[in-house]
Amino acid sequence: MDLARIIEHYGLFALFLGAGIEGETVVILGGIMVHRDILAFVPVMLCAAAGSFVADQLFFMLGRRFRHHPFVTRIKTRPAFGRALAIFERHPVLFIFGFRFAYGFRTVSPVAVGTTDLAATRFLAINLVAALVWGAAFVSVGYLFGEAIEAAFGRIRSVEHVVLAVLAACAAAGGLVFLVRRRRARS
After folding, report:
1. Half-sphere exposure of 172 (CA within 13 A, CB side)
2. Is 159 left (phi over 0), alpha (psi -120 to 50) or beta?
3. Is the pLDDT of residue 4 over 90?
4. Which residues make Cβ contacts (< 8 Å) with residue 145, sequence separation at least 6?
5. Contacting residues for 17 by C-beta, under 8 A, at least 6 apart
6. Which of 7, 32, 123, 124 has the greatest count of CB atoms below 10 A from its CB?
7. 178 CB burial (10 A radius; 0-12, 13-18, 19+)
8. Where are its TM segments located (predicted)?
9. Higher confidence at residue 1 or residue 149?
10. Mutual angle of helices 24-35 and 120-144, in 10-degree steps
11. Mapping DSSP to helix (H, G, I), strand (E, B) and coil, where does residue 98 land?
């Protein structure tokens, strides 16, 4: 089975997982698959939105459930957490809607919101709409700029090269995050 067939069969599931774990890069790749007519726009957008939504709901619930746990208490002392809460206090709806678009706030923000007194149903509703907008926006970027993205990689002729390039970039980013966390843990 070639890679295009694998993507046709398992691509939406992989996109769901990737949107929740990694985010924009995977969703843009999904948009490129739409551009190449391997996957359809609406299912790709819905899977991307669902992956982001589920991840953010999970982080929110973890923040809510463990708000007094020593680990969360330690995270609360970090500057990013404090900035997230300060912005949330001024503009709660706008913050919930927009945190997924702000690099560096995507994971910590739902945990931070979970530690507040915001009703879980309100977070769920805003998060759902925001995830749909986010999914549509980043799939559209991949779809609309698919040729430009491919040109940046040197006129790629097959989908395998795009997937391998993205996987290599994700592996490099994951390695860097691992090294930074390990270094911080030693400090």
Report:
1. 6
2. alpha
3. no
4. none
5. 51
6. 32
7. exposed
8. 12-32, 38-63, 123-146, 158-180
9. 149
10. 50
11. helix
What's the rounded Cα separation, in Å, for the pair 156 and 174?
Answer: 24
Domain locations along the chain: 3-156
Question: Is 80 exceeded by the pLDDT of residue 29?
Answer: yes
pLDDT band at residue 104 under the 50/70/90 scheme: low
Tokens of residue 11, six digits: 């691509």
Alpha-carbon distance of 59 to 173, in angstroms, equals: 21
pLDDT single digits (tens) 109-121:
788 888 888 899 9
- State pLDDT tens for residues 157-166: 555 555 656 6
